[in-house]
Every structure is written in C-alpha cells, then in structure tokens.
Write a structure and sequence with these properties.
Length: 427
C-alpha cells in the first residue's frame, strides 16, 4: 500500500522528467535553427555590404583586382573569386566542418557558408563567406545544463513543499482515521472528531458521526433484544422441561405417546442449550467477564477427566501432549467453555474407533481429530453453520470459541493436514 502523497507525486515527477528529456532535443533544434537563420542573414548582409563598399570606391579594373587580392589576404573568412565558365551564377548555403586556419586549440569546427554572386564594376564575382557556428552547440549545452539544474531544484522544492503541506492539510484526516481505528461497537462510545476548516473533511466527519451514532443505536437495540429474549425464555423453557420430565415418568403413557414426549424433550433441551449459548455470546460481546491468571494445564486435565465418558462411548483413542505449569491471562469460566467446546466438537465429528490428539504448550492449545476432507474455513466459525447431519449440537459451539478468543486476545485457526482436522488456539 502506498501513501496518497506518493501516488500523486510520482506521476508528476515522471511527467516532468519526460518533458525535460523531450525539451533538450527541442532546445537543440530550435536554437540551432534560429542560430543558422541569424548567420545566414549576417552572411547576406556582409556580402551586400562588401559589394556596395567596393563599388562606391569607383576603382579601375586594375585597382579592383589589387583590392580583391588585398581583401582575400586580410579577410580570412571571406574571399572573392572570378566566376568560372561552368558557374550557374546561383547562390548556395551549406555547412562545412574543418579546422581553423589560425586557431590551434580547436580540433574541428562547424562553419555556416554562403556562396553568392556579387557584381563589382558591373562584372559578376563569386563571394564566399564562412561563419563559425560552433557556439550554438555550446549555447545548447548550457541551456540543457541549466534546465536540468532547474528541474532538480524544482522537483526537490516541490517534494519538500508537498510533504510540509500534506502534514498540515491532511492532519485532520489522519486524526479521523486514528480515531476510527480505535473505535469498537462493543464499547458503545461516540467519537468526537476535531473541527477543521477544510469543508471536505468537515463533511466527512459529520457523515461519520451520524453513521456511528446510528450503528451504536442499532447495536444497543439488537443486544437488548437478545439479552431480554434469552432471559425471558429461560423460565418458560425450564417449566416446559420440568413438565415433560414429569410426563415421561407417567406409567399410563402409551409407547407412541412416550416417543412423542421424548422427541419433544430432546427438542426442548436443544432449544434450552441454544438459548443459554446465545445469552453467553451476548455477555461475551458486552465484556461482562473479568480476566485473571489461569493454570491452563490444570483446567485442561480437569476437562479431560469429565469428558472421559464421551471418549469411551465411541471408543476414541486420545493422544495428549500437555506441558506443565502453563499460565495464561483470561477468564476461567470462558476458558473452560472454550476447552469443552473444542473437545466435544472433535468427539462429535470423530467416527467410532477414531482418534483425537490434544496438545498444550506455552504458546498454543491444539485439538485435532481424524477426518476425510477439509471443511469450509469461511463458514466454520459462523453461527448455526453445520458440517454434519448431527442435530445434537446447537450450531454455536465454534462461534462461541471464536468470540472467547477475541475477548481474551487469542487467535484461533483451522487447517486440514494428513486427514486430520486441526483447531489451534494461539495464546
């Protein structure tokens, strides 16, 4: 996951870098074209000026020849030549690369050349002029270097400025996010968001406040309904079960009536267990249990003794690896429920003559039983999820285990290895 600032800054830097890379050759061609145009214009002016000044002297033909010779000697970048017979009398512009005739510290230079026909004493002459254009490359180099330096300063400044601005501008958002991270419906406490002068953040905080207030109200209503329903059902369920027990002891019942009453008693017993488990879940979610130090190994051994009859009924072989003096912080009643639920769940879903393994150390409590295929992990700890045809259970055992682990800061996970269902509680 990337911070929002990085997501916006990185594309911007890449975009600027692309523009920079493109701008360097663009600078080169633009500056070079301007430079060549200016040199061509300069060469044209020099040719016209030379022609005009020589004609203004009104020299004789002999003096003109001497003047042209002198001109060629004292002007190294220009020369005036007689027109050859095959000359087409057209002007031309071209570039040559060569060494300077009078400089030795330069290897090769570029020259912009103009070859033009001028008329002296009304006779055509070929006027050649060459002007060094190497300075254009130097100009382009310095422009590019300056652009790169400015780019570095610009990007560096923007990064520093963005970080400082984001720290102040996004501070209300971060405060809101931190408060949401610590919010829990179980605590049922409203969040007081800080006031901000940014309209978007203010609207966000107001919307979140309304949403949280609504959720707390709905959550309270649901919890009150669950608690009240469970409490109110306990008494009529107990009365009904008591009446059925008395009815089952009546010797005047026919066999058919006895079976009907027995089925009613089993259904009523299961309803009573579901009601008690729902009430237990409500109490766990309400944080109505206090934690203390528990000797988990002793508690586990006690549960094993109590459940020994269940192992014997299905002739299940039990393998135990229980470390001694394992101490944890939790509620002893809830921890006992967790142990019993995991072991009873393993017994219920283990076939006759199967095997169960129970392990305990300072870091984990593990219960595994033999099986044929992996269970659906997504539905395993949901309420009233069933993975067998056994209707004796309430469908809440593993959901209660999950809530107990959550309330005591433990974690439980499930895996299927070597034809064994393994439930592991990390303490």
């Amino acid at each position: 996951m990337k911070p929002l600032l990085n997501k916006t800054t990185k594309p911007f830097i890449i975009y600027v870098l692309i523009i920079l890379v493109i701008s360097i050759p663009v600078y080169y061609f633009v500056v070079d074209a301007i430079w060549k145009h200016e040199l061509d214009e300069h060469n044209e002016i020099v040719a016209e000026k030379t022609s005009s000044q020589i004609n203004s002297l009104k020299l004789s033909d002999q003096k003109l020849i001497e003047t042209i010779k002198l001109w060629n000697d004292v002007q190294p970048t220009t020369n005036i030549q007689n027109v050859e017979l095959n000359d087409n009398l057209k002007d031309s512009i071209f570039i040559v690369e060569k060494q300077h005739d009078f400089l030795h510290f330069e290897d090769i230079d570029r020259f912009r050349c103009l070859s033009k026909i001028i008329y002296l004493n009304k006779k055509p002459y070929r006027f050649n002029i060459e002007t060094n254009i190497e300075e254009s490359q130097e100009t382009i180099f310095f422009i590019s270097a300056t652009t790169v330096i400015l780019f570095i300063f610009m990007v560096g400044g923007l990064l520093v400025l963005n970080r400082r601005l984001s720290k102040s501008v996004w501070e209300p958002f971060r405060e809101t996010l931190d408060k949401l991270k610590t919010f829990s419906l179980n605590n049922q406490t409203k969040i007081e968001f800080s006031k901000t002068d940014v309209s978007e953040f203010d609207e966000l905080n107001q919307s979140l406040s309304k949403l949280i207030e609504h959720n707390i109200s709905v959550y309270k209503t649901q919890k009150e309904f669950t608690e009240n329903a469970s409490h109110e059902l306990q008494t009529p369920l107990a009365i009904l079960k008591n009446k059925l027990d008395i009815l089952l002891q009546n010797e005047d019942l026919t066999e058919k009536q006895y079976h009907i009453a027995e089925e009613m008693n089993r259904a009523l017993s299961r309803s009573s267990r579901i009601n008690k488990n729902l009430l237990l879940l409500a109490k766990i979610e309400n944080n109505q249990f206090e934690n203390s130090e528990i000797h988990l190994d002793e508690l586990l051994n006690q549960s094993m003794e109590i459940l020994q009859e269940h192992f014997e009924q299905k002739n299940i072989s039990v393998h135990t690896e229980i470390s001694s003096d394992v101490k944890v912080n939790g509620n002893i009643g809830l921890t006992e429920v967790l142990i019993n639920n995991l072991i009873l769940n393993a017994i219920r879903h283990t076939s006759i003559n199967g095997s169960i393994s129970i392990k305990l150390n300072n870091s984990a409590f593990e219960v595994s039983n033999s099986g044929t295929e992996k269970l659906n992990s997504d539905l395993l700890f949901k309420r009233f999820s069933r993975f067998s045809k056994d209707n004796n259970g309430s469908g809440l055992g593993l959901a209660i285990v999950k809530e107990i682990c959550k309330s005591q800061n433990w974690t439980i996970d499930y895996r299927f290895e070597n034809h064994n269902h393994i439930f592991s509680v990390k303490l």
